Structures are given as C-alpha cells and as structure tokens.
Amino acid sequence: MTADELVVSDLSVHYGGVRAVRSVSFTVGSGQCVGIIGANGAGKTSTLKALMGLVPRTAAEIRFGSHDLTKVRARDVVRHGIGYVPEGRHVFGGLTVEKNLLLGAYVQKWNDRTRRTLREVYELFPVLGEMRHRLAGALSGGQQQMLAVGRALMSNPRLVLLDEPSMGLSPRLIEDILAVLHRLSEAGHALLLVEQNAKLTFEATKTCVVMENGEVAMTGTSADLSRDPRVRQIYLGL
Fold it and tell me: Confidence class of residue 2 from pLDDT cuts 50, 70 and 90?
C-alpha cells in the first residue's frame, strides 16, 4: 500500500432493513483519478457518504494510507487528508465566497500556508477571486460548484471525493469542470469521482467502477469501458 492509497474492501451500507450498497471493493492510488458511474439508485452517493462516515456502514476495510477510517468519526475524516464535495454543492448562501472558502480550512491554522492555499484556489478559479466579497447564494450554479470544490481544497487534501460535480450544469460549464479535474490530477491530488455523466467520467479518469443495484457490476480502465458495447448502450446511449 502506498502512503496515500485508499483501500475499500467489502463495503456495505444499510438504511433500516434496506441494503443500499453490497460488498463494494476498490482502490484509489496516490495521485490516481478513479470514477464511479451508474444510474440513479445504483449506490454511488451512498458509497461516498459511507467513506466519509455519514451513513451506517459495515466494511472489512476502509483505509487511507495508515489511517483506518472505520474508526474515525465523520467530523474528523477531513483531518486525515480527505476532501469532500457533496452532491448539490451545499454552499452557505448567506456568507461571502471568501468566508465559504475559509470554512473549508477549519482544520488548519491561519498562517502563511493557509493564505497560500487561498491564493491557489483563486488562481484555479479566477471568478471566485473576482467575487470573493459577493454572497455565495448570488452565484450561478457553475460558480457555486467551483466554490464547493475550492472549499474542499482549503483543507489541503491528498484525496478529493466529488459527488456529481456536473449536475445541472450546461455543456460549456461541464467542460470547465473537466478542465479543473485534469488540473487537480496533474497537481498530484487523488480523485474519486461519482457521476451519472459517463462521458465526463471516462474523459476525466483512468480507471472506472460501474455500479448497478448497489453492487460493482464492472471494473476496468476508462478507455476499455468506454468501448464496451453494454456500457456504451446503457450509459452513453450508443
């Protein structure tokens, strides 16, 4: 295992008597970008929430580097180098853009490193710098998505979990998000990307997991899966 490898083994999620995720296993290597695709109800979001400790779960192993995440409280997961961009953005609309970003650094001391991270987020998303004093609720959907990603980056994560970052965005803004994902990957961040948009996922990732009915149906390189006839028919409409 590498220092920043995420290992998930036999993960299951239960909501009452319903098992939403069944025995899911995968790895995300240091600096690697892995995608999870599937239809609504496939268990994608539940998988991410389970990794963050936000839903009831069982697992043989959830480990990030040397940290056993099954023993870590949800509020402390970010302290172990994991950032989370939730589905639906969930920015604080009544606070300014900059205050939203600073909330993402709550586990950090305010020092030169934190100031540098804030500058780097503004360099990654220039529009956020231009609107730093504007209320987050006044931003467009695409700008709020950038803010949600920037907020996650403020904790200096080595692994970023992203849940449906393209949801509700125009094709042009989806291209912007794809460019951001490439830049994050090139900067050395490991990424776990959950998406219904299979085309975006295949373009952004090297490896992909296909989920159906809470289980892993297929795993392979994104290039191979994008050419698989069944995947092309179901997820690409080809």
Answer: low
Per the listing, tokens 């231009």 go with: 130
Mean pLDDT, residues 183-208: 93
State the Cα–Cα distance between residues 36 and 43, nearest whole angstrom. Answer: 10
Beta bridge partners of 207: 34, 221
Residue 28 amino acid letter: V
Place of tokens 């085309």: 199
What local confidence, expressed as pLDDT, does residue 123 receive?
Answer: 93
The candidate with the shortest Cα–Cα distance to 63, out of 23, 9, 24, is 9
Q: How far apart are CA 216 and CA 47, in angstroms?
A: 11
More confident residue, 44 or 172: 44
- Residue 22 burial by Cβ neighbours in a 10 Å radius (0-12, 13-18, 19+): middle
The predicted pLDDT at position 238 comes to 52
Domains, in order of start, for the chain: 1-81+157-165+193-238 (3.40.50.300)
